[in-house]
Amino acid sequence: MADTHTYDIAVEWTGDLGPGTADYRVYSRDHEVLAAGKPPIAASADPAFRGDPARWNPEELLVASVAQCHMLWYLHLCATAGVVVVDYEDHAHGVMTMDETGGGGRITEVVLRPEVTVADPAMTDKARALHGEVHAVCFIARSVAFPIRHEPSVHVLDAEDA
Fold this sequence. Notes:
This is OsmC family protein. The protein is an alpha/beta fold. 22% of the residues lie in helices and 27% in strands.
């Protein structure tokens, strides 16, 4: 039997402003994402859908999940390939396209823009190439139905920073 891993979270709506959902415009979209032993994530809807812009929304969390999974697998692949990464930062971008009726939409693309710093100039080509191998093993990338593109940049650690 295949190994399985489970992930249990709770979502608690905190946006009842008194009349509940008596009207679309009278309740807050605020909620918390909870997991045992972890601090809550303050969340809401996208501001375009009456959400609080100061809170995380589901679309941002999905893009963040794609970027996190890519980074974690990329670092693993680098470690096993002998590529020493000393810094990693990603500026991921997700696109949601609304359907023609305006009643729904879907994430249609995520672009990852990882900026990687390696310890040795001889590692740059391999470091760049390993981004292309992540999609085959990343749990999140393998689970979504939209394309994920990579626009990586690889830098070498300055001797002054070492």
